[in-house]
C-alpha cells in the first residue's frame, strides 16, 4: 500500500477508522457519508473514484480490484493492521476534515463561538462543510492512541 498516493474508501463498518485516517492526512472516503451501502454500489464507487477499498468483509474484499481486509473490530487493532500493510499513520498538519473528508484551509478571520481565536491558536476550516478544527484535547487523544500502536 503506497500511503502517499492512495485514496481510500472505507466500508460501512469502519466509520471511526475513517476519522483517524483523515486526521493522519489520508483521503479516506466513508461510504455512509454518501449513503452508499449495497456491495455493488461500494465496488462501483471504489472503481469510479480509483480508491483502495478498506473493509472487514472478506467476500467484498475478494470482489474488489484493490482492497485491504481488516479483521479486527476495534479501531486500535484496525490501525495496527493498516500500519502493518504499509500505511503511514502519523499525524500531519490538519489537512482533511475528520467529519466529511473535505480539504482544510487555515483560517485567519473571526471564528464562531466555541472556536479558538486564530490569533491565539492555529485554526483550520473545512472547505466543504465549514467545520472548524484545532489541535486540542481530541488531537492529543488521537496522538496518544497512535503512539501506543
How would you describe the overall organization of this protein?
By secondary structure, the chain is of the alpha/beta class. The chain has a domain at 7-84. It contains five helices and seven strands, in the order E-H-E-H-E-H-E-H-E-E-E-H. It has helices at residues 15-23, 39-48, 58-63, 75-84, 137-147, and strands at 7-10, 27-30, 52-55, 67-69, 104-107, 123-126, 132-133. The strands form two sheets. Strands 2-1-3-4 form a four-stranded parallel β-sheet, with helices on both faces. Strands 5-6-7 form a three-stranded antiparallel β-sheet, with no helix packed on it. Helix 3 (58-63) links the parallel strand 3 (52-55) and strand 4. The protein is globular. The relative contact order is 0.16. The model has no long low-confidence stretch (mean pLDDT 93).
Beta fraction: 15-25%
Shape: globular
**Got a strand count?**
7
Q: Note the main sheet.
A: 4 strands, parallel
Radius of gyration: 16 Å
Cα distance, first to last residue? 18 Å
Question: What proportion of the residues is helical, as a percent range?
Answer: 25-40%
Strand order of the largest sheet: 2-1-3-4
| Low-confidence segments | none
The average pLDDT score comes to 93
Structure classification: alpha/beta
Instruction: Give the topology string: H per helix, E per strand.
Output: EHEHEHEHEEEH
DSSP helix count?
5
Topology:
Blueprint: E1 7-10, H1 15-23, E2 27-30, H2 39-48, E3 52-55, H3 58-63, E4 67-69, H4 75-84, E5 104-107, E6 123-126, E7 132-133, H5 137-147
Parallel strand pairs: 1-2, 1-3, 3-4
Antiparallel strand pairs: 5-6, 6-7
Amino acid at each position: 500500500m503506497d500511503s502517499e498516493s492512495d485514496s481510500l474508501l472505507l466500508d460501512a463498518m469502519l466509520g471511526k477508522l475513517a476519522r483517524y485516517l483523515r486526521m493522519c492526512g489520508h483521503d479516506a472516503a466513508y461510504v455512509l457519508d454518501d449513503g452508499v451501502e449495497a456491495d455493488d454500489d461500494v465496488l462501483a464507487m471504489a472503481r469510479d473514484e480509483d480508491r483502495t477499498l478498506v473493509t472487514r468483509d472478506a467476500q467484498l474484499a475478494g470482489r474488489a480490484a484493490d482492497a485491504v481486509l481488516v479483521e479486527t473490530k476495534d479501531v486500535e487493532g484496525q490501525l495496527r493492521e493498516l500500519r502493518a500493510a504499509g500505511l503511514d499513520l502519523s499525524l500531519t498538519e490538519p489537512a482533511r476534515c475528520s467529519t466529511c473528508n473535505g480539504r482544510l484551509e487555515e483560517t485567519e478571520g473571526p471564528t464562531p463561538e466555541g472556536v479558538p481565536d486564530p490569533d491565539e491558536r492555529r485554526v483550520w476550516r473545512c472547505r466543504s462543510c465549514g467545520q472548524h478544527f484545532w489541535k486540542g484535547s481530541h488531537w492529543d487523544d488521537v496522538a496518544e492512541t497512535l503512539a501506543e500502536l
